[in-house]
Amino acid sequence: MTKPLKHICMATDIPFWAGSTGAEQRMLALVEYLSHPPYELSVFYLGQVTPEESERIERLPCEVAFFESERPPEPFLKRIRWYADATRHQLEKWLKRTPKSEEENQQPSPLKLSDYRWPWAVEQFRQHVARVRPKAIICQYVTMAYLLDALSIADRKHILCVLDTHDILHDRGMQFHSAGYLHWLEISEKEEVDVWNRFDAVIAIQPQEAERIRAAVTQPQVVVAGHAQRRPLRLSRREHPEQPRQLTVGYIASANYSNWHAINRFLIEVWPDLIDLPGTQVELLIAGKICDWFNLVEGRAASLLKSAVRLQGPVERLEDFYSQVDIAINPVQFGTGLKIKNVEALAFGKPLVSTASGAAGMSPRALSACLVADDYGQMSKQLREICGAPQQLERFTEAAEEVAKSEFSPQTIFSELSALLSDLD
C-alpha cells in the first residue's frame, strides 16, 4: 500500500518563481525538492501577481495560493516606497560624490518586523492551513513568523513549524550600516533570536551560521540547507586560440548594495591589471539586474566599462550566461549567508575567484575549486595567474566540474532537512 504524501506548506511574500536573485533561486530549488514524493507542497503567497508571472507560476510543480484581496498596511507601503527611492538616490549621490543634504539626513526609519504584519493575512493563513492540513510549515525569512499566530495549541502539537532564515539578518544589517549602506530590515539580535525561538526547527543556510543559531536558541532544532543547483547538462568546453588566448571572466548578480559596491571596486582596483595581460585577451561579462545600475556610472568606472566589458543584463537561463564564461568572480566585501552565485558558478563547472567574504560558508571541498583573496590586490594577482597559465586554469576547471558532481545535488544539500521531515507522521 502506497504511503500518503506528507504535505508541506511554505509561506512567503517573495516572488521566487522569477529566479532573479540568489534567494529566489534557492527557494526555487527547495520548491522543486519538496514537490516530489514523499512530499507534496503548497505555497501560501502574500502579494500581487502579473499575468506574465501567472504563466510562470502555472509551470511550477506545486500549488500556489494567492492572497492579495486587501492592501498591506499604509505604513508598510510608505516605507517600501521610501526604501526603493532611498536605495536609488543613495547610489546616485555616491556615484556623483555629492554630500547628503539636511533633508536626506532626516529620512524615515527603515522597515521593521512590525511593518510586515498584515493582520488580515493571519486569518487567511488559518483558513489555508485548515484546508491543506500540512504536516509541516516553512516560513521564508523572519518576516513571515507572525503567521504562526494563526495556529492553535492543537495545531502546534501536530504541525512542525520551521523557519528558513536565509541570513542572520541583524549581522547583515550591521555589515551594511558599517559600509555606509541601507539595509532592507532593521532588526536587533534579541528580536531575531526571539523569532528563532518561536519555531520547532530553524534552517541555516551554511554551517557557521548554524553554530551561531544553536548557541543562541533554547528550543529549536537547527539544520543546514544551502542551495541545491540542479546540475546542467555538461557545458561544452570553450575553445581558446593559441595566440592570443581569449578568456571571459563572468559576474552575475542582483541589484543590491553589496553587489554594486563589489563590481564597482573590482572595475577600479582589479580590472585595469587584466586588460593588458600579455598573450591573453580577457573580457569581463556582467549579467543580471546589476546591469541596471551602470546607467548611473560616471568617472573612472565608466571609462573602464569601455575596456573589454560587456553588459548582458538579465538572463532567462543561467546556461546562457555560463556557456560564455571561463572564470567566475565574486568580489563582494560585505554581507552574510551563503553566496548563491558561488554555488551556481561551481555547479556549472566554472572555477571561482572570490573574496574571503564571498567564500564564507563554503565547504572545504567546494573551496578546492576556488581562489580566495584577502583583498583586491591579491584578487588581481590570482586572476592574472589563472588567466595567464592554461594548465592552472584547466586544473581549477576540472576541480569545479568534480565539485559540481558531488556537492550540490538536492539529495546532498537537503539531507538534514529530509532527516528532520522524515519523522513527520
List keywords for this structure.
Rossmann fold; 42% helix; 13 strands; alpha/beta; seven-stranded parallel beta sheet; globular; single chain; 3 domains; six-stranded parallel beta sheet; 425 residues; 17% strand
User: How would you sum up the global shape?
Assistant: globular
Query: From the coordinates shown, what is the CATH architecture of the largest domain?
Result: 3-Layer(aba) Sandwich
Low-confidence stretches: 102-106
- What is the subunit organization of this protein? single chain
Q: Could you tell me how far the N terminus lies from the C terminus, measured between alpha carbons in angstroms?
A: 16 Å
How helical, in percent, are the residues? 40-55%
Main sheet makeup:
7 strands, parallel
CATH class of the largest domain: Alpha Beta
| Arrangement of strands in the largest sheet | 3-2-1-4-5-6-7
How many individual helices?
Answer: 19
Number of domains: 3
Helix and strand composition category: alpha/beta
How many E strands? Answer: 13
The CATH superfamily name of the largest domain is Glycogen Phosphorylase B
CATH topology of the largest domain: Rossmann fold
Mean pLDDT: 84
* CA gyration radius, whole angstroms: 22 Å
Strand residue percentage: 15-25%
